[in-house]
Structure formats: C-alpha cells, structure tokens
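ATP-binding protein
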Amino acid sequence: MSSIDSTPSTGGGGKELIGTVAGPGEGPNEFIVVTPDEQAVKTGEFITYSVPVEGTDRDVIARVTNREQARGLPETFMADPNVAPETVASTLGVPTDEIDLYRLEATVIGFYDTGMQTFSNPRQLPSPGTRLWTAPNEMLEAILPNLGVDEEAATDTSGSIDLSRVDVEDREGLAHMGWLLNREANAVDIHVPIDEFAATHLAILASTGSGKSYTAGVLMEEMMMPDSRASLLVFDPHGEYGTLSEMRGDETFSGEGYQPEVEYFDPENLRIRISELNVGDVMSILDNPSDRMQERLDGGWRAMQRRESRTWGVNDLLDEMRQQYGEDDSSVGALEWRLRRSIQRNDLFTTDANVPLDDLVAPGRCTVLQMDTLSRRDQQMIATVLLRRLYQARLAAVRNRGEDNEFDGEIIRHPLFALFEEGHRFAPATGEAPSLGIMRTITSEGRKFGFGLGIISQRPSKIDQDVLSQCGTQVTMQIQNPTDQDAIKNSVEAAGEEVLRELPGLTPGQAVVSGDSMNTPVLIQVRERHTRHGADSIPATSQWQQAHKERRQQPSRAEAADMGGGESTGEEDLL
Ligand SMILES: Nc1ncnc2c1ncn2[C@@H]1O[C@H](COP(=O)(O)OP(=O)(O)OP(=O)(O)O)[C@@H](O)[C@H]1O
C-alpha cells in the first residue's frame, strides 16, 4: 500500500518521520502506528499528521500512550547473555536487518483551532497508511500550554496557518517552568500563563522529596520577574523559603527600574488583634465549651463587635458577658478560665497591634510568613485572620468601596496570590481547622476578586476535596500512595488515566502539568532555580564530621576549668 501524503504544513525543529498508521485502536480516538525501532518514539511523545477539515489542511496532534514490540528476534536468540543476539542470528544465517518493529498506540488530541484558542477534535481518525511525524518543537511550545495563539502571528505569507511561526519566548506574564520531558533539554520550553493559575488557583502535589517546594520556588521566581511583579504571600510552616531573598538585587529579576522586594515576617510581628477573630474562631480554640458557654460567648462577642472600639480584650469581653448574664453566672465563670488560657496568655493575640495590610502585601513584593516556631493551631489562626482581612480588602476594591467617603475599612487595589506549604494543614479533609471556611470561600469565589491560592501538599487525600477540586491548575509529581492517587483521580478533573499512570514513575524534578493553564496535560522537567533551594535535607555525615573536628579542637570542660584558675584539676569537678 502506498503511504498517504500527510506532511504537516508546519516546519521547525524536532519534526521527524516516525511511521505509518496501521489502523484504528480500541477507543474512538485511538489509532495504531507501526514504527521501526531506530526511531525510538517514547510513550508520551506528541506526534502529528495532516487531515483536511472543512477544506483546509489541519495539523492534528496525537499523544503516544503505549509502545510495544510488534516483531523482533525470537527469544531463543537472547538465551545466552554472553553472546549478542545478532551473532547468534548471523551464525544461523538469519537476516536481522529491520527485524524490529514497534506498535504504538496513540490518542488524538486534536488540531489547534485559532478561533476557539484550544484543541478541536476532528472526529476522524487518520486512514491506514497515513504517515506520522514527531510534532515540531516550536509548534508544541505554542499550543500545549493555554497561551492563546494569535491567528495573525500564525499565518504565513501564503495565508496558511503555520503554528511553528509563533514565538512565545518574548510574551509577558508567562512562567517558564521547564521543558517537555520527552525531548532534549530546552527543546520544547513550557511556559504557563501566570494570569490563569493566579486566578483559578494552583495545586502542587507530590510525595515528600519529589520537588514540590523546589517547583513552588521556580514559580515564585517567575512571578517576581519584571514582566509580572506579583503580590505574593507565602505561608511557610517549615521556614523553607529563606533563600528567596537572593532575588533582591539579582540582575535576573531586575528591569526597567524594578527589583523584587522580599520581606520576612515572624510571629513577633504577626500578632492577631483579638477583635479580628470571629466567634467561630474563638470556639475552635477553646477547650470543649458546653452549649451554654457557646451561647454566652456568642452573645458577648456580638455585643463587643458592635462597639466602635476595635481594641478590646478578654477583660472587656468578660465584663460584657457578666453584664448580660449576671455576675455569678457559672458558664461565664467557666469561660473565663478558658479565655484566659487560650487567648489572654497566648502571645499571638493582642488587643491593639494589627499589621497594616499595605505593609504585608504590595505589587512586586514577595512576603514570607515564617511560622515554624508556632503550633499548628496558631498557624491556622494567623492564616484565618489574614485571609479574611485580605479577602474583605479585595472585595472592597472590586466593589469600589474606596469611592465611598464613609468607608473606613481596609482596601487592596491589586490582585493577590497566597501560597500554602502543607496545604492540608490549613484546609484539612477531616477534623477542625478555623482556616478551612475562608479557604473554601477564596477557592470558590476568589477568581472574581483577583485572589488566587496555591496549595502545596504531600498528602492530597488529606486536603479538603472542595478546595482541591477548585485548584484549576495542577502540578503533580511523584506519588506512589494509592489513597493519594485516588484523591487526585476524584478531585482533579484534568487527571486522566494517562496522567495517573505516570505518577509512580516520576523522579524528583519531573512533573505533570494539567488543568486550566494547559490545553492538554504535559510531562515536564522542572527547570533549575535561579535562587538556591532552601529545603535541602541536612547532609548528616559531613556535618557530624565537621562538628567532631570542632569538638576536638575545643578544650574539654575539665581542661578549660584547669586553664582558668590553675587550681582545678578537673577531677574536682567530678567529685
Ligand atoms: N527541578 C529540579 N531540579 C534540580 N533539583 C531538584 C528539582 N526538583 C527537586 N530537586 C531536588 O530534589 C530534592 C527534593 O526537593 P524538594 O525539597 O522540593 O521536595 P519536596 O517535595 O518539597 O519535599 P518535602 O515534602 O520534604 O518538603 C531537593 O534536594 C532538590 O534540590
């Protein structure tokens, strides 16, 4: 059978003839390709062919989903590991040339429709005999991520669409995450649109040690570049982002008079004003309040919130409750002990200090909240109160409350992106967390108010499924735990079988990027960071060695005592 000429109209690097269509596959979008061994097309590779759609030739992209040997040397030729199969074959006089053939299964993704700005399925499989090429590098750079291809930029002098002409390198607001894993390093760079994941939220999910915080670091670097100048807030429960300060003054991040600011806040300057708490927050930190106590607290708290002053404390609240329920009310008495223990004696809470939101967030500023010395509950409390204030301040900006002379609340006029390490701690699937409510609100409503969240976690099954399912872009790295794989399957829409199959085999730094920021899920190698990674494991043996040498160089306590007065022998210390 003569092969059908289906040369794609696009030119460019990486385009090589790989084989021919043998026939349809199992599913309605699947077909089988036969290819000789030396082409070595890997699973996950993007291949292309051309078909006429409504009178115009379209370059259709398909993904190789499986590869198996269709014909090779008989197994008896491989029996002795010391003799090459070719030697056995030639001794027996069997020709080995072109004996290997591979059978590839491929799934049609579609042709890029410049009108719809995404893939469109031609609903027609390539005919047997159609020739297939690996898709050109430039074409993949332009159409795999959801960047929107301008039809004019893609049209060549003859008026036909040539997607390899589109150059995304110089486009603004893109995050260069890395490159397509199946191609050579940097052959197909993957740039994801920051606007997209900053609006519809992001999840970075992987087992521990697979590169989550490294990848988050890469994305933050990209967001702080001169063509983005993001307003970032990082909730860092382990103190892993100390090295982001290297962005300050680094030429890579500077331009047009801009340099990113990187600010660190610790618990000392992250105090929470008591009046910022709502009654639900307080209930969540009190020890087992009875129904009657909850009722008293609710009445007292509401009265305090109606007051003009925002600087009241536990004593004022107790006075208020005694006024309402009587001096000798036993429930107020029981509440007093609990309120003093959980709020008044916790340094986190204060009556007056309140970090102004303008000090905390600004365009071109990455603020890291270092919370590693705080308890989990205090970390959640800080997140709750800050997120609520920030959300209200964004709401006020979007609703033009700033133009109302009587409005005296806080207002933030630029979009925000808040990133959570240990996301399951702040939005847990089970158990109480005061921060869960506001995180659900922001993930479901934040898009309209320019407030994006990024959730990083090594336990997807432990994240609230509502929050996880609202994260429109997913970066998924190595995950072996079946429960976590199931959580991804259930809540991540874009995670098809192909994505899930990849997860156990990934190595650190390899990731599947899927969802709103992509037109189709893609396997990438995450690029190296410009700043150092701040969360490497501690190299125990070299540090033991160093510490031991230092210890030997220092005089022992007994020797030191000896040198001090000349009277001690050291032995005296032991007596
Ligand atoms: N893209 C990459 N390029 C080079 N090295 C990487 C890359 N991604 C990860 N690594 C290396 O892999 C190791 C683990 O990365 P990382 O600390 O980000 O993992 P993690 O998933 O955040 O782990 P944990 O859950 O323990 O915080 C680090 O030593 C890091 O240097």
